[in-house]
Amino acid sequence: MRLVLVGPPGAGKGTQAERMAERLDVPHISTGDLFRANLKQETELGLEAKRYMDAGNLVPDEVTVGMVRDRLGDADTEKGFILDGFPRTTAQADSLGGILKDKGLELDAVVQFEVDDEVVVQRLLGRGRSDDNEDTIRNRQQVYRDETAPLLQYYADRLVTVDAVGEVEEITERVFTALGKG
Ligand code: ADP
Predict the structure, then answer these.
(1) Which of 57, 121, 168, 171 is the most exposed place for a label (fewest CB within 10 A)?
(2) What residue numbers bound the domain in which 49 lies?
(3) What is the CATH number of the domain that holds 90?
């Protein structure tokens, strides 16, 4: 399956993406993880991304889209993939559409993780990543509302919504049920 996960920061997309990837036997592609891996290796792309990530802003599309295009060129994505954190804007969604169209492919579904802002602030503050301080989190939530939430309309024809509050295992089951694979 080719899936995109959408949800506010702290909705648990990464956790669910790991579990879904294992069950579906497809790679989990997280743009946040790719940026953090680049940063750890001190690549030019990583250092460029850091400035934006630290402030909770989006990394520019020139950087992000190229990175995703490269990753989707890897052979392991031929059996499908779970995209986590990309696209995050309708412009990125257009780019993704173009990348897939060139391969004659389409997304099967877009899974929306629904969760309340206050629940996620508490979760994120507990996680302790360097970009998980309250100001950055609030900014990321604002960016989500302004830039990412329009994707829910964009993908209305393939949107599957899941209540993302509950136990990890329970939420995974909700996802597969919503995808008709329960
Ligand atoms: P979260 O969903 O908790 O905000 P992520 O690990 O998905 O965490 O992303 C962390 C940061 O990486 C974002 O705040 C942003 O700066 C950058 N980033 C991730 N994905 C994208 C993307 N698709 N476009 C632009 N920036 C991105």
Answers:
(1) 168
(2) 2-178
(3) 3.40.50.300
